[in-house]
Design a protein that fits this description.
Blueprint: H1 7-24, H2 32-42, H3 44-73, E1 80-83, E2 88-94, E3 100-106, E4 111-116, E5 120-124, H4 126-137
Antiparallel strand pairs: 1-2, 1-5, 2-3, 3-4
Organism: Pirellula staleyi (strain ATCC 27377 / DSM 6068 / ICPB 4128)
Main location: membrane
Membrane topology: Single-pass membrane protein
Length: about 140
């Protein structure tokens, strides 16, 4: 093997005095107690990065999802809604299984659409929904 030297060949190359001098320079072996704390400290930046990622990315998304679930659970007739497809309307009927919602999209013609409850993205009064639209267009 390249780079591996036996004790006998090292003694032949360095002589007996040179070998002892080389071994004396190696120093003492490190203690096991001091290395334990240092090994835990090396993981500290990784743990900090994971915590920051959780606080910035995951936690706000969980809050938004809970707010949306609460809004969908409290959905009632005459609430103004916007679907994920961008269709705005007023709730006129909620099915018995609460899986489907019928919304009226045009008051003049009485046009109604039956959509999944999970397809509703925003719930609120007409004023709240138009305020959100005005804020995003500015």
């Amino acid at each position: 093997m390249v780079g591996v030297i036996s004790l006998a060949s090292a003694m032949a190359l360095l002589g007996q005095d040179g070998l002892w001098h080389l071994l004396a320079q190696q120093g003492a072996a490190p203690k096991g107690d001091a290395g334990g704390l240092e090994s835990y400290l090396t993981f500290l930046p990784i743990v900090a990065i994971v915590m920051v990622f959780y606080l910035i990315m995951i936690r706000p998304d969980q809050k938004k999802r809970k707010e949306k679930e609460a809004a969908l659970a409290s959905l009632k007739v005459n609430d103004h809604v916007v679907t994920i497809g961008g269709i705005a309307g007023t709730v006129v009927n909620i099915s018995a299984e609460a899986k489907f919602v019928t919304i009226r999209v045009d008051d003049k013609t009485g046009t109604k659409i039956k959509v999944l409850r999970s397809a509703i993205s925003q719930v609120g009064t007409l004023e709240e929904l138009t305020e959100d639209e005005k804020a995003t267009t500015k």
